[in-house]
Design brief:
This protein is of the alpha+beta class and 755 residues long. Among the domains are: 143-215 and 297-367, Penicillin G acylase, beta-roll domain (Roll), CATH 2.30.120; 516-638, Penicillin amidase (Acylase) alpha subunit, N-terminal domain. Helix content is 32%, strand content 20%. It has a ten-stranded mixed beta sheet, with helices on one face. β7 and β8 form a beta hairpin. α19 packs across α21 (604-627). The longest helix is centred in the N-terminal third of the chain and has 28 residues, at 24-51. It is globular. The N and C termini lie close together (9 Å). Its EC number is 3.5.1.11. It comes from Sphingomonas trueperi. Its cofactor is Ca(2+). This is Penicillin amidase.
């Protein structure tokens, strides 16, 4: 397989490839080729991880991770899955895979062109196969570890405390499933997934610094902002769509820009390396953006094993046999390891414990037939309008707020994602796997919530709770847990102001560093303070609550925020739950401080003031330790750095061959619109945020604005290795040329791919 005709790749001054083809599948061939050109080691490493093939290259410590990855591959009929997809979508996916392999073939012919990692590690890139795009499933909003935590709290009679860690939408109490022995539930029930929690074991230092609590908080804070503005509210007289997806920052960039054109097809934006298509951007007719929504797409099932045959489990009053497969994991410098993979009716078996006659299985939306998320982005790209997007949405498994704005002046929002139908439980705790709590299918995607052309003239999503009333718990629900609303509330403040909103204002809003949690906290600071607490309060009073990189009060506030989290937990969580309730969400924390109650004792306001005073003193000490003895020299950006390092940089040869991109200072935190989160247990280095930002001027496409971090290529030999780093730090968005005339004015290199 390959291209049918010549594909032209015109790279512009920023390294963005504008791919021109005579057919749509050939355009996707071009995208696969340029992704492999710019990001080969990134997509190769991810492919090895997804397929469970790390140990063969990196050694025995990766065997458990390979075991877990293989357990979560799709085990159904691959050819049937491909046959059920639209033929044009499959053709585009094949083109993408063929394009990756075409670039790999060039490198095999001339190994001197291989990215530097391959020479250091003595590796060769894996060839790609469209079957792997079917077998690798992704996109779930997992909840198994949360279910275990709630069961453990319930066993101690302390389930109400879970609201400190994970506040629930609505006034909802988790339901204890009939027949569940909560006292028997433990982290061991997570099986192989519990064993492989955390980062890949590239070195012992990485593992030593890993904190599961803060890692979970960091992952949950990954979100995105998006807003869509009607022509009536826009300063341009045309709709505006802005989007900045928040993903991990610190390793490889999670987005790669590209422009695909063919007869009847024209789409530009950012894609996820290794996944065909454009995830955020625009066609010649409409713009599209996305933010994570929330759908609980996993459940943990507790299975009873047959006493005399542990390969059978009880289900619907029968003993049913696990489906089993045996696989061999090749291991570098060691013997092969043979693993047995079991599957129950619910899904893959995470734990198999014959001694306790116990097993656990995980039901996952992504492992169902037809849950081919990897192909969904192509389908969305091929859609011509709002109605066709609704049809393409049937393939979209992952929970997503889809934003839309077209050249006819229409704007719209659609909730995407597969929602399991739970008729007898709420998904918040593990359930017995005897058949009573089995899923009853998936809610019809056509019935998911939508919004078109609202009277307000705008709408936004920032991972906040946004379900309409008819998606209430007594009818249907996607999830009970949602991100804190601070980013959305700030966006709503700005967009709700009178007047017109333009492109410049959208770029500025994407970089807004006003902290609503800080605004809520500052009025609570006690007046009668002494010593360091008094110094801290004096520094914070009168502060504008903006987390600028050059702000001293911002540096102190972040230290105070960390101290307050620990202090509130210590004050209200009993010793019997401190191993389980190890973090506090900002919503219950601010509620406790704003309206202190009996949990703080018989005189709650006095206790609150004492807690704040003590935290202020400790925050001052922490700031002196981190920023120095002179408060006038404190700057939040001095600790809140943006450092991008190769995932294997602990190996000196890799660190030398692929140097870190670092030194940049940042403002913001995980709750500002300019989301720049950090893992407090580790340091204040930025760990997630918007590495790609776009503001689309609907219809006047060449005026659209874009930013990306740090550049198009991960190869340090490329001029586009870090050429966008400084502009991204400064928030200096640039035009994103789309028309042939505008693109040609910026072209710096042209490559032709021939059949």
């Amino acid at each position: 397989m390959g291209i049918r005709d010549v594909v032209t790749i015109a790279d512009d001054a920023w390294g963005v490839p504008h791919i021109r083809a005579s057919s749509i599948p050939d355009a996707y061939f071009g995208q696969g080729y340029v992704v492999a050109r710019d990001r080969l080691f990134q997509i190769d490493l991810q492919l090895r991880r997804d397929l469970g093939r790390l140990a063969e290259s990196f050694g025995a410590r990766f065997v458990p991770h390979d075991h877990a990855a293989r357990l979560l591959l799709y085990r159904g009929d691959v050819e049937a899955e491909l046959a059920a997809l639209p033929a044009e979508v499959v053709a585009c996916a094949r083109g993408y895979v063929d394009g990756i392999n075409a670039r790999i073939a060039e490198l095999e012919a001339d190994p001197s062109l291989l990215p530097p990692e391959y020479g250091v590690l003595k590796l060769r890139p894996l060839r790609w196969d469209i079957a792997d795009l079917v077998r690798i499933r992704s996109g779930d909003m997992g909840s198994s570890s949360d279910e275990v935590r709630r069961a453990q709290l319930a066993a101690r009679g302390l389930l109400d405390l879970d609201a400190l860690t994970a506040p629930l939408a609505w006034d909802w109490k988790p339901r204890l499933p009939e027949g569940l022995d909560v006292a028997a539930v433990s982290k061991a029930d997570l099986g192989i997934l519990g064993e492989t929690e955390g980062p890949l074991p590239w070195n012992d230092a990485v593992l030593a610094s890993y904190d599961p609590v803060y890692d979970r908080l960091d992952r949950e804070a990954h979100g995105s902002n998006a807003w869509t503005i009607s022509a009536a509210r826009s300063a341009t007289g045309r709709p505006i769509l802005a989007n900045d997806p928040h993903l991990g920052i610190g390793g490889f960039s999670p987005r790669h820009l590209a422009h695909l054109t063919a007869p009847g097809f024209d789409v530009i934006g950012a894609g996820s390396p290794g996944m065909p298509g454009i995830m955020q951007g625009h066609t010649d007719h409409y713009a599209f953006g996305r933010t994570n929504s929330h759908i609980d797409q996993e459940d943990l099932y507790i299975l009873e094993l047959k006493p005399d045959d542990p390969e059978c489990y009880r289900h619907q009053d029968q003993w049913k046999r696990f489906a089993t497969t045996t696989e061999t994991i090749r291991v570098k410098d060691a013997s092969d390891v043979v693993v047995t993979l079991r599957t129950a009716k619910h899904g893959p078996v995470l734990l198999h414990d014959p001694a306790r006659r116990r097993a656990t299985a995980m039901a996952s939306v992504s492992l169902r037939p037809g849950a081919n998320m990897t192909f969904a982005i192509i389908a969305l790209n091929l859609a011509k309008n709002w109605e066709e997007l609704a049809q393409a949405a049937r393939l979209h498994v992952a929970p997503t707020n889809l934003h839309y704005a077209d050249i006819d002046g229409n704007i719209g929002w659609r909730l995407l994602g597969h929602v399991p139908i739970r008729t007898r439980h709420d998904g918040l705790l593990p359930v017995p796997g005897d058949g009573r709590y089995d899923w009853q299918g998936i809610h019809p995607t056509g019935a998911m919530p939508t919004l078109r052309n609202p009277e307000s003239g705008w709408f936004a999503s920032a991972n906040q709770f946004n379900l309409p009333p008819d998606w209430s718990p007594d009818k249907r629900v996607t999830s009970f847990t949602w991100n804190a609303p601070y980013r959305y509330d700030r966006i709503a403040q700005v967009l709700g102001e009178s007047g017109k909103h333009g492109l410049k204002e959208s770029v500025a809003l994407q970089h807004d560093d006003l902290s609503l949690p800080a605004q809520a906290l500052l009025p609570l600071l006690p007046r009668d303070l002494e010593g360091k607490a008094a110094q801290a309060a004096a520094m914070l009073r009168g502060w504008d609550a903006r987390l600028g990189a050059d702000s001293g009060p911002a540096a102190l506030f972040e230290m105070l925020w960390i101290e307050l989290g620990a202090a509130c937990l210590a004050a209200i969580v009993p010793a019997a739950a401190r191993d389980l309730v190890t973090s506090i969400d900002p919503r219950p924390m601010l509620a406790l401080l704003t309206h202190p109650d009996a949990r703080l004792g018989s005189e709650p306001e006095a206790a609150r003031d004492a807690l704040l005073a003590a935290a202020l003193g400790r925050a001052w000490d922490a700031a002196e330790c981190r920023f120095g003895a002179d408060p006038a020299a404190w700057r939040w950006g001095d600790a809140h750095r943006v450092a991008l390092r190769h995932p294997l940089s602990s190996r000196p040869a890799i660190a030398a061959a692929v140097p870190a991109i670092e030194g940049g200072r940042s403002g913001g935190d995980g709750y500002t619109v300019m989301a720049r989160g950090y893992v407090a247990a580790r340091n204040c280095t930025v760990s997630h945020g918007a590495s790609f930002l776009i503001v689309c001027d609907i219809g006047n496409w060449d005026a659209s604005q874009v930013l990306s971090l740090p550049g198009q290529s991960i190869d340090p030999r490329s001029p586009h290795y870090r050429d966008s780093y400084a502009a991204w730090l400064a928030g200096q968005a640039r035009p994103f040329p789309f028309s042939r005339r505008a693109v040609d004015a910026h072209v710096r290199q042209v490559t032709e791919l021939r059949p």
